[in-house]
Design brief:
heterodimer, A: mainly alpha, 77% helix, B: mainly alpha, two-stranded antiparallel ribbon, 19 helices, 2% strand
């Protein structure tokens, strides 16, 4: 493709992004906002491709456009599912509008309201312009850390520079990030139990059949994405996201055995990835080296860590979609009391 | 140059609690031993690190063996070690107290399942938070600090929501939003700094920092994020409801330890890494915010009807003192303000943890924390009330408490520097603290009106002793001043070490 058409493409992507973002913020309908957010994620992934960052593009497509949607949907569903939530939503909009209308009935009120808005927008705009000018004036000659990564690439045990940074040079960061995901699940479990809704019976057998075929394929794709991470774009996060998407599909199609999974194996799998990562890091600690993989084993160990973490990340994201601890988790005297 | 085998001890304060958190989530056996073992081992490791620091001077550890521009370095110097010590001490205290707290509530036979659930989720979250704090104090890399901040705030928010009451959930949701906004602002700041200088390591950054618009923009964004996270006036709005409505051990952790993380980072950035960017005007703005915080927090604390809210507002007020240290540290050649800052952090950490624990015990016994209905509770739990009073002495800054040493050093700094006006706020703040502490103390000693409303069961030792020990440590901190100074100036006299090994 010639450069003119590429520039045109970039312009279209940019304008679409801005337009989507504006509509997303302006729409009062939460469902519409959610759909817009997913499309925003897709276009954003395109933008990342154009910025020559295929890893980020993959993650954005899988997480931003893919998995965030179902997460929002389930949150929205819960909000609408309860009478309290629904009333709250109505009240919020009525109250908010009422307040504004009350203020804007008088002309002076209307003018003050308008002035406040303009002032706020002006402040934000000034900040934005300032930051943008500073960015434009940054001297571009500094190469960042890319040079160092390229120099040490051979010692890292993998071919993909992104994976080398994520799991070797700055593996400590990734270890802590995986702990952040783990803590997110613990937080969700501490807040709510999930009661899988009784069979709605609305799922057609065709959908279930398709999912039965699709899910194994998706798991294959996920594993190949993780494996591919050692030499191309991909890795534990992207693979985990695809795995989670397979899980979400199965849950939405109400496969009967999903409800019967007890808490202990889920906990084991959630802890598995972080524990393998930490354990392999510590196993090098005997001679005083933390997370320092022995040279010839580095590639293999990184693949091992990626597989384990990919599995746990997938389950983590799926658990976030479920939005609560399994029903049999912490069954005790109190559970029954609370339920009644 | 420290040997490799010695400095790997620095990894343990992060690795051990992480492993502990994972295991506590896996094995739900309702026992104290796993978390307590991890808290105690953490304390032992930190004591061992203290010895290493005194013998060898500041330590550096390259994670994965990668050199600085590429890899991440852990740095242990005097200030970082003192923060680790504070965290380990308070952590051990909180762990004991939490066990007693949950056991007491479970044995009350009122919704025991609910309390069991809270306890089982408390341990993994608390150990993860401990790991995040230790990692934050040890880290020598601005991006790694961001990751630890993220781990810290997610686990802190989850802990704040643990009580499950709608008020607590609403407050912790607000806390989550404020905290995420702070993180994002910090991340944007990193972006500006990395874009213009291409390094993330604190030591390397200190060498290349020069006044320039993108560096300043980065520092301003990072500082705003950190100020929001440490609830500096006027960004404190999220703190009182979140801290006051959490479970008692959680309130202690949040108020005593979590906000110290971002405050410590702020001080470190302004006076160590980015020191050459700082202008007196910016420092005066921070100092003014500090004065406003001291008064606003103090006055609102006086107006509260609920004990835990009072203690939470007193945190807002105390954060003001830390901010007042900023303008005083600027011309300071002897580094006494670094010492003052750390003394106040240590003293306030121990005292506030003790105070929230004591308030929590009173809450447990009476089922509420309305101050006018707490008359005569001294008869039921003399040790707890004593601990509360000792912690209060610290907040007022009476000798020989650590709070006194901190304020004294600040005052001398202010007068030596000719900036006497800051001292007015420091002293007035002490009076305000005395007013709100005595306001609680006096009804506690009055004879109860009518029949006793308190839960008749005896207070378990685990609920009484941790706050008492911590408040006594804070009280006697002033007597250990020479030892702490020795730690700060270990090996060579520099308070702060460079990032380069």
């Amino acid at each position: 493709m010639n450069s003119l058409s590429l520039t045109l493409f970039d312009c279209v992507v940019l304008v679409t992004l801005l337009g989507l973002a504006w509509q997303l913020l302006a729409t009062p309908d939460l469902f519409k906002a959610m759909v817009l957010f997913m499309s925003f994620g897709l276009v954003m992934a395109l933008a990342w491709v154009r910025l020559a960052a295929p890893d980020v593009a993959l993650a954005e497509a899988a997480l931003g456009a893919g998995l965030t949607g179902p997460l929002f949907l389930s949150a929205l569903h819960r909000l609408r599912g309860t009478r309290k939530g629904e009333r709250r939503q109505q009240l919020d909009s009525i109250e908010h509008r009422g307040k504004i209308e009350k203020v804007t009935q008088r002309t002076s009120g209307r003018i003050i309201y308008l002035l406040l808005r303009i002032l706020f927008a002006g402040l934000l705009l000034t900040l934005l312009v300032h930051l943008a000018t500073i960015l434009l004036h940054v001297e571009y000659e500094n190469p960042g850390l890319g040079v160092f990564v390229a120099e040490q690439q051979e010692e890292s045990g993998v071919i993909s520079p992104v994976t080398a940074v994520l799991l070797n040079f700055r593996g400590y960061d990734t270890l802590l990030e995986i702990m952040v995901l783990f803590v997110a699940v613990v937080a969700v479990w501490s807040l709510a139990t999930v009661r899988f809704s009784e069979k709605s019976g609305q799922v057609s057998p065709i959908q279930q059949g398709v999912v039965r075929i699709l899910a194994p394929l998706m798991i294959l794709v996920a594993v190949s994405l993780i494996w591919q991470g050692t030499h191309l774009a991909g890795g534990a996060f992207q693979g985990g996201a695809v795995l989670a998407a397979a899980g979400v599909l199965m849950m939405v199609s109400e496969l009967p055995w999903l409800r019967l999974i007890p808490s202990l194996p889920v906990r084991l799998m959630l802890v598995f990835g972080p524990l393998v990562f930490l354990g392999l890091g510590v196993s090098c600690l005997a001679d005083g080296r933390f997370l320092e993989y022995p040279g010839e084993l580095a590639g293999f160990l990184i693949l091992l860590i990626e597989l384990a973490c990919g599995l746990s990340i997938g389950l983590t994201l799926a658990c976030l979609f479920v939005g609560g601890r399994p029903v049999d988790d912490l069954v005790d005297r109190g559970q029954l009391e609370e339920g009644s | 140059m420290p040997t490799v085998s010695a400095s790997f001890w620095m990894v343990l304060p992060v690795v051990l609690p992480l492993a502990g958190g994972l295991l506590c989530f896996l094995w739900r056996q309702r026992s104290l031993w796993l978390p307590l073992a991890f808290a105690l081992v953490n304390l032992i490791v930190v004591i061992r690190l203290t010895r290493l620091l005194l013998i060898q001077g500041p330590l550096h550890y390259q994670i994965g063996g990668w050199e600085t521009p590429l890899g991440i370095v852990l740095v242990l110097d005097g200030p970082a070690l003192l923060m680790l010590l504070l965290t380990a001490l308070c952590g051990a205290g909180v762990t004991c107290y939490a066990r007693g707290y949950f056991a007491y509530r479970i044995s009350a036979q009122k919704q025991p399942g609910r309390h069991e659930r809270q306890e089982r989720f408390f341990w993994p979250l608390w150990l993860m938070l401990l790991a995040a704090l230790n990692g934050l104090f040890l880290s020598g890399d601005i991006f790694n600090i961001y990751v630890t901040l993220e781990l810290l705030s997610i686990s802190a928010v989850a802990l704040a929501a643990l009580s499950g009451k709608p008020v607590a959930q609403l407050a912790s949701f607000r806390y989550l939003l404020a905290s995420l906004l702070g993180s994002l602002s910090y991340l944007l700041g990193i972006f500006f700094i990395y874009r213009s200088h291409g390094v993330l390591d604190l030591g390397l950054l200190r060498a290349v920092v020069e006044p320039g618009s993108s560096m300043t923009a980065g520092l301003v964004l990072m500082s705003c994020g950190l100020l929001l996270k440490s609830a500096a006036f006027p960004l404190h709005f999220w703190l009182p409801p979140a801290h006051a409505n959490a479970l008692a051990p959680v309130s202690a952790i949040l108020s005593g330890l979590v906000i110290k993380g971002s405050l410590y980072l702020l001080f470190r950035f302004w006076f160590d890494t980015f020191a050459s960017l700082i202008s007196p005007a910016a420092l005066n703005v921070i100092g003014m915010l500090g004065i406003l915080a001291v008064f606003w927090g103090g006055i609102l604390a006086l107006l509260q009807q609920r004990l835990k809210l009072l203690v939470a507002y007193s945190t807002v007020s105390q954060v003001g003192y830390f901010l007042i240290a900023f303008p005083l540290a600027y011309h300071d050649a002897t580094l006494s303000v670094w010492t003052a800052f750390l003394f106040m952090i240590l003293a306030h950490g121990c005292a506030k943890v003790a105070m929230f624990m004591a308030a929590g015990t009173m809450y447990l016994h009476s089922g509420h924390d309305r101050m006018r209905d707490l008359h005569g509770i001294r008869l039921v739990m003399p040790l707890t009330v004593f601990a509360y009073g000792m912690a209060g002495v610290n907040l007022m800054g009476l000798p020989p408490s650590g709070g006194f040493v901190g304020k004294w050093l600040l005052l001398t700094g202010a007068f030596d520097d000719g900036q006497w006006w800051w001292s007015v706020a420091i002293m007035a703040g002490g009076l305000l603290a005395a007013a709100y502490v005595f306001r609680v103390m006096s009804p506690l000693f009055q004879a109860p009106v009518g029949a006793s409303i308190f839960d008749g069961r005896p207070t378990p030792a685990l609920l009484e002793w941790p706050p008492l020990v911590l408040s006594l440590i804070a009280l006697l901190l002033g007597l250990f001043a020479p030892g702490i100074m020795a730690l700060l100036t270990a090996n060579g006299g520099a308070v702060i070490s460079g990032g380069l090994p």
